[in-house]
Structures are given as C-alpha cells and as structure tokens.
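This section describes the prediction task in plain terms. A model, or a person checking by hand, is given the sequence of a single protein chain and must write out its three-dimensional structure as a string of tokens. No templates, partner chains or ligands are provided. The sample shown here is typical of the held-out split.
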Amino acid sequence: MSPILRFAPSPNGRLHLGHAYSALLNDAVAHRLGGIWLLRIEDIDLVRATPENIAGIEEDLAWLGLSWPQPVRRQSGHMAEYLAGAERLRRAGLLYPCGCSRSEIAATVAAWESKTGGRWPRDPDGTPLYPGTCRNLPRAGRESLLAAGGRVAWRIDMAAASAAAGPVSWRGFDPDGRDWSVAARPERWGDLVLVRKETPTSYNLSVVLDDAAQGVTHVVRGVDLEAATDIHALLGRLFDLPRPLYHHHALLTDEGGRKLSKSRSSVSLAALRAAGESPEDIRRRLGFG
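The expected answer:
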C-alpha cells in the first residue's frame, strides 16, 4: 500500500506560517515516501467552523502551490460514525456520563489544593486531571443524571480502558524512513472527555476514526500533539484499528517564544500575501525553497 498522509486543520481562523510549515512538510514527506497527502477539515466546532474559514484554508494552500485529492473529508459530515464509535465504547463499559462543569471541577481542585497545600495532578497539557466525581456515582446516580435531560459529556474510564487494552505503544518515524517504538502512557491524561456536551465527539475520538477511515499510514503533525498520541494509540487498540506511524515536528514560534496560534492572532498567510509576499518567499522562509 502506498503511504497516505493528511493535513487536517481546524477552520476556526485563517492559516498562519505554522500551518504552512506543517502542510509543506506533509507534502515533502509524502513525495519522499512515494505516497500522497489528503486534506481533511476538522470542523466539529460548528460555531467557529465557518464556510469562509474553510474556503480560506483551500485558498491559502492552493496559493502555496499545493494540491490534494478530492473529495475533502469534513468531520461535520461524519457525526454518525463518531456516535457509533462512542456507543461501542459505552457498550464495553469504558465510558461514563459526566455532568460536571469546568467551574465545578476547578472548585474541587482548588479546595483540595487549599486544604492539602499540594498540587493537584495535571495532564501533559497542564490541565488538572478530572477528580472522578461522576465516575464514582452509583448506577442509580448515573441513571438520574441521564434522566434529568441536561447535556452530559462522556468520559473514558481510563483505568478500565487501560485494563482492557493492556500495554500500548505507537511507532514514530523520521522523514528518512527510520521508525521506532514508543511506549504509550495514556493514564497521564486521566478520564478525559471523548464525547463533548455540545457535540457528539471530540478531537481525540474523531481523529482516530478519521485516520482509519481514510487509510492514513503516516501522520506528520506538531510536537504539541505528541503526548496525545498515547490516547490515540489506546483508542486504536480498543477499536482494533490499524495504526499509523507518527512524526512530530518542531513548532514555529513568535518573538516571545510562543507557538504561532490563531487564538493569539498570529499573522495569517492571507495578510502576508496582501503585504506582497509570494509563495516562493514563504517556502524559502520555511526551508522549502
């Protein structure tokens, strides 16, 4: 099978230089491996994923001189697949409903830290681990939570999932073709949300199912997602899916050393284009000249 890669931006703003680097690297690695790369639009955030942002992504990538096979997979068109995946985990007893708000979780963590003088455990992104409030509900309590009619999230029971999966690993690779095994530690993430209150999936659930559905064999993405690969390896094992190899590239940063981000209004490719920069200028700046 020929290698298949993918570039999968979220359409919640215009692309910046960090996106351009990742897209160009996917293109370069795909050519080096004799494969192709796919464009996927990760638009599960239906509030910020506007048609204008989606069109902007394709416009920016085409301006850089990139092309990709059609049709483009959009996550918003595959919610039924994510629901089916979540239901499979529920039937296996690996998900539980959670009605806790972020403020309630923060209050529980703050109260514990104030009482003990310690620091509540954090996940690799620095977010406090879920305290297990709803995991510890008796069966009747969970039924009452669901019967109340409010929106609930569905969290993975990490202890149960880890026991069901056994030891998990994933394979890293470099663009020259070397690969190696990495022992996964998904327990670092605790009982994270796999089905959000406002939408029937999450990034971690949908990305694993999408990669399998599209036959992705190699994933090239930023190092900020390296720790999340442990979760993706765990889910791949639970779903019994073929798992891709992963390459996590360094991130582009601003003058303050912070990664480029749409939320920080990093300069967009569209703005650079309007300022007179050419695709060749961008490619040279990013090392693809």
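For orientation: Residues 85-214 form a domain with the Glutamyl-tRNA Synthetase; domain 3 fold (CATH 3.90.800).
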